[in-house]
Amino acid sequence: MERICEPELMDDPEQARVYSEADFAASDAALVERIVALAAPGGLGSKLVDLGCGPGNLSFRLAERYPATELVGLDGSSAMLALAEQRRQTEAERWPHLSFRCLTLPLTSGDLGEMAGRCTAIVSNSLLHHLHDPAVLWQTLRLLAAPGALVHIHDLRRPQHPAALDALVQRHASGCDPLLRRDYAASLRAAFRVEEVQAQLAQAGLGSLRVEAREDRYLEVRGRLA
Ligand SMILES: C[S@@+](CC[C@H](N)C(=O)[O-])C[C@H]1O[C@@H](n2cnc3c(N)ncnc32)[C@H](O)[C@@H]1O
Question: Which of 146, 226, 160, 224 is nearest to 196 (CA)?
Fold first, then answer.
């Protein structure tokens, strides 16, 4: 099945609201545990960036787990970031080192500021498939990462056939809001396959990172940069 891109930013307020109200608790909690396991025993270091953070699902969980780490959530959607910021401000004392910035990849040198080459960990959930040019993500890692930075990129994996896509939507999104179901199908269609990501990493000179399929619908890119 050929890849069909979907819009990069999720900047429709209704789309952002529906996404933020969806229950991703189980998969988000499992993802955090995998990041924690990869980071052990030293943790995530001093500066963590969550690329394409959306309403902050992963950011808030990691901020709770690593309260001493400075954590910046980046997203190009002001609708998503308004939701993240609203939650942050509701309990500001709970997240003393968490902030959100509205920035769209590819980042410019002006965007990078003090983050350039200083990030000890870079994580991302469900951003890669949104990027029309996936090389943008791999270039961003290079710009942000401190030497030896930990990387954990989690995303959907494109099924082989339309029937397999329909089965995934049925299995995982049948009870969801129709807008979320529509976006889920479009995201699966826009996602990459493991071998495609392997080729992207080789092209970007990021051979130290490993890609693997997970469960029936995910892929993961993990490791440390040289
Ligand atoms: C499916 S959501 C994932 C949100 C969050 N990471 C999570 O774990 O639930 C994808 C997010 O990536 C953002 N995004 C897509 N393309 C982007 C780009 N070029 N620059 C910045 N953010 C982008 C979208 O606006 C959206 O909020």
Answer: 160
CATH number, domain at 116? 3.40.50.150
* pLDDT tens track for 127-141: 999 999 999 999 999
Give pTM, 2 decimals.
0.97
* Residue in 5, 6, 10 to alter for ligand 1 test, most ligand atoms within 8 A of Cβ: 10
Tokens of 152: 């954990």
| Residue 98: band (very low, low, confident or very high) from pLDDT cuts 50, 70, 90 | very high
Query: What atom of ligand 1 comes closest to residue 77's alpha carbon?
Result: 25
**Cα distance between residue 79 and residue 116, in whole Å:** 26
Percent of the chain at pLDDT above 70? 100
Residue minimizing CA distance to atom 13 of ligand 1: 52
Backbone angles phi, psi at 106, to 5 degrees: -75, 140
Range of the domain at 192: 13-224
The answer to whether residue 146 sits within a structural domain is yes
Ligand 1: nearest atom to the Cα of 104: 20
Domain count, the chain: 1
Does residue 226 surpass a pLDDT of 90? no
